[in-house]
Amino acid sequence: MTIRARLTAWYVSISLASIFLMAGGMYYELVTERAERQAEDKPAELVPEEIFEIVLFYGLPTALVTIIGGWMLLRKALSPLDKLVAAAQRLHVHNLREPLPRTGNGDEVDRLTEALNATNARLEDSFNRIREFTLHASHELKTPLAVMHGEIETALADPAATAAQREVFASQLDEIQRLAKIVEGLTLLAKADAGQVPLSRKAVRLDELVQDSFADALILAQPQKIAVSLAACDEVTLLGDRHRLRQLLLNLTDNAIKYNQPGGQVDMRLARNGANAELTITNTGKGIAPSALRRVFDRFYRGDESHNSGIEGCGLGLSIAEWIVKAHGGSIQITSELEKSTTVTVSLPLPPSV
Q1: For residues 66 and 138, which has the higher predicted lDDT (pLDDT)?
Q2: What pLDDT, on a 0 to 100 scale, did the predictor assign at position 253?
């Protein structure tokens, strides 16, 4: 039965019940009670008094039955929609195969749910094809890039090469290394999407990794005379993958230096915050526009190309950083003020015993 037919049947039933209730009250007041008074030789009630009694004792209950009954039937009719909305809000790219709840009665909501489940299944297949293509393509690109890298390195080391040739070879080598880095990032993200990247869960001193990253940042910041400071570094131990956490710190500090201004500042801080370890990295670059903040974790997104075109990078660093943080059960967010500063905040859960 359709929702329209079901609502109509329910509302007709409530309306008929209300009419019978009102009609019964009127019949009792105007016929039965009058007959009883006449049989007992009592004077009949005045018409206004009878109308008042009918409205008070039968009209108001009838109105309440109609209102409450209508509200209840609408709530019951719309409850499958509420469940469908709640289930749809829980969907994301990794659980599209999870079916939305069906009513099973063949109404419009049930047919809509069936159509949405079929759509989600097609989306899941499309995402899987994209992941497989990215993974296979990046894998196939590794061999020719490695061959080209080796050949150009050999040509660059050739004593017979002229200075102009060496310059060309060096430029080509830089581009090949950049391509290799892009391919490596794509491979990692494709495997992560497919759940093929195993993460170890061992005790890791995050403060030691932050200190190592701080030392690396001091070296990376020297060419642009950027001051790097480590305001606080609490001793923090968490369960995670040491290699991936180090990669996270490298990506974040590298971005903080690259997207800065000469003579700028990078401030790092690691502190305990309740049951979490909180890492903040702030730089004094040009900042990120509010319209771009919601896209900073998108793959290959690099913000304003007019300002960032001369900065080396491919737009995968923050995507990888976000995956590493979420894989460790944490959260990452970025806040920014144009022409002032940008702050990255990473929160990672601590084990209960730490």
Answers
A1: 138
A2: 93
Q: Is the pLDDT of residue 268 over 90?
A: yes
Mean predicted confidence (pLDDT) in 153-170: 89
Distance CA 70, CA 77 (A): 10
Residues contacting 67, CB < 8 A, separation 6+: none
Long-range contacts of 177-185 (CB under 8 A, 24+ apart): 177/149, 178/312, 178/314, 179/141, 179/145, 180/142, 180/145, 180/146, 180/149, 181/314, 182/314, 182/316, 183/138, 183/141, 183/142, 183/145, 184/138, 185/314, 185/316, 185/317, 185/319, 185/320
pTM of the model: 0.67
26 burial type by CB count under 10 A (0-12 exposed, 13-18 middle, 19+ buried): middle
Q: CA–CA distance from 351 to each of 203, 274, 276 (Å)? A: 9, 11, 9
The mean pLDDT of 318-347, rounded to a whole number, is 92
Q: Please tell me the distance from the alpha carbon of residue 60 to that of residue 47, in angstroms, as a whole number.
A: 19
Cβ neighbours around 68 below 10 Å, total = 11
Instruction: Tell me the mean pLDDT in the region 168-186.
Output: 88
Strand order in the sheet with 276-283: 227-233, 265-273, 276-283, 341-349, 331-337
Please give the pLDDT value at position 217. Answer: 93
